[in-house]
């Protein structure tokens, strides 16, 4: 993947100047020692957006790329009991990327992983809780206030 380097403001001004004088992209590229595609991009931006300056990047680059997200998703599908801190430490060991467990959770959510792991112990607790209230009669439920935001 090629490295993107911003050209200086002075070089961009020279590209526009030589383009206005009628020189070809190839001639301008050879004269200023930049690629022909860079010359084309500068001229196109000037014609379409009427600007020479570059717009600074707004957000911080992502710590996890698409490849890392797929790797995390494979691991969590293979073993749904893995916690986010455990996945973060494994990612640090494998790729050297130090990320917060919340970043792992956010990446899994972004990848479409929705169902959290519920342990067998918690499943039994939930079932017992539901069974406790299913046999209550209707008069008991009339005294309960249900709230919703």
From TrEMBL:
Tell me, which GO biological process terms does this entry list? DNA integration; DNA transposition
Q: What is its main location?
A: nucleus
The places in or outside the cell where this protein is found are: Nucleus
Provide the transmembrane region boundaries: none
A Gene Ontology molecular function term for this protein is: DNA binding
Transposase Tc1-like domain sequence ranges: 70-133
Record's superkingdom?
A: Eukaryota
Per the record, GO CC terms?
nucleus
Protein name stated in the entry? Uncharacterized protein LOC107271405
């Amino acid at each position: 993947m090629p490295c993107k380097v911003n050209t200086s403001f002075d070089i961009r001004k020279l590209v526009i100047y030589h383009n206005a004088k009628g020189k070809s992209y190839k001639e301008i590229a050879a004269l200023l020692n930049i690629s022909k595609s860079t010359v084309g991009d500068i001229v196109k931006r000037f014609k379409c957006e009427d600007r020479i300056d570059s717009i600074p990047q707004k957000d911080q680059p992502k710590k996890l790329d698409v490849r890392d997200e797929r790797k995390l998703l494979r691991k969590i599908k293979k073993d749904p009991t893995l916690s986010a801190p455990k996945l973060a430490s494994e990612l640090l060991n494998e790729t050297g990327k130090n990320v917060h467990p919340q970043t792992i959770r956010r990446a899994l959510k972004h990848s479409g992983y929705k169902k959290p792991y519920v342990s067998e112990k918690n499943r039994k607790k939930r079932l017992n809780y539901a069974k406790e209230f299913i046999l209550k009669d209707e008069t008991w439920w009339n005294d309960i206030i249900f709230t919703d935001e």
